[in-house]
UniProtKB/TrEMBL annotation:
Transmembrane segments: 6-32
Protein's membrane topology: Single-pass membrane protein
Similarity comment: Belongs to the LemA family.
Identification of the protein by name: LemA family protein
Pfam families to which the protein is assigned, alphabetical: LemA (PF04011)
Keyword Disulfide bond tagged: no
Alphabetized UniProt keyword annotations: Membrane, Transmembrane, Transmembrane helix
Main location: membrane
The keyword Membrane belongs to this UniProt entry's keyword annotation: yes
Subcellular location: Membrane
Organism: Aequorivita echinoideorum
Length: 198
């Protein structure tokens, strides 16, 4: 092979392979890093939800202890709250089962707070007022954390399902994350007529 033909082959090889190194490889790196960042953001957001849920879990024994002396008729509700709190400690933190159980616990706590209204002495107790304020603050933090988590999950799930990042997601086995969803009782429309009939 003569020298000019060798140079020509070398130049053609460089022209053909350069785009692979200067376009394709950086694109693949950017896509992979973007998926990793989104997955890590989901984990970070979930840790915020988890911390808020754990803080609420720590309030529950104090709440149950304060209410127990007054509420003889609601022992089953208190038992359900305590039992559900204990079950939550055994469930995988990022499972949809845990999300459902947390929603169930939220419903039970709301029912308990409504029931507290029937006990004027308990409702006026300084300890109970403090617990109610703390529980309301925790519910607000949980709600904000859930919104941040769901936004992070949406970004990750969109990246996993849309082209071209879905190719990298399939190759590296990125999984869709579950959303925190409201349970059916939270979707029910409250009946207000009882409050207006007084």
């Amino acid at each position: 092979m003569n020298k000019p033909i060798a140079y020509l082959i070398l130049i053609i090889a460089i022209v053909v392979t350069l785009p692979i190194f200067f376009i394709t490889i950086p694109l693949l790196i950017i896509l992979y890093n973007g998926l990793v960042k989104k997955r890590n953001h989901v984990a970070f957001s979930f840790s915020g939800v988890d911390v808020a849920l754990q803080n609420r879990g720590e309030l529950i024994p104090n709440l149950v202890a304060s209410v127990k002396a007054y509420m003889f008729h609601e022992k089953s509700t208190l038992h359900d709250i305590t039992a559900l709190r204990n079950k939550l400690l055994e469930v995988d933190p990022q499972s949809s089962k845990r999300f459902g159980m947390e929603n169930e616990l939220t419903g039970l706590l709301k029912n308990l707070m409504v029931t507290v209204e029937s006990y004027p002495d308990l409702k006026a107790s300084e300890n109970m007022l403090h617990l109610q304020r703390s529980l309301n603050e925790m519910e607000e933090k949980i709600s904000a954390s859930r919104r941040a988590y769901n936004a992070a999950v949406m970004n990750l799930n969109n990246a996993i399902e849309t082209f071209p990042s879905n190719v990298m997601a399939s190759v590296y086995n990125f999984k869709m994350s579950p959303f925190f969803k409201a349970d059916e009782s939270a979707r029910a429309v409250p009946i207000l007529k009882e409050g207006f009939n007084k």
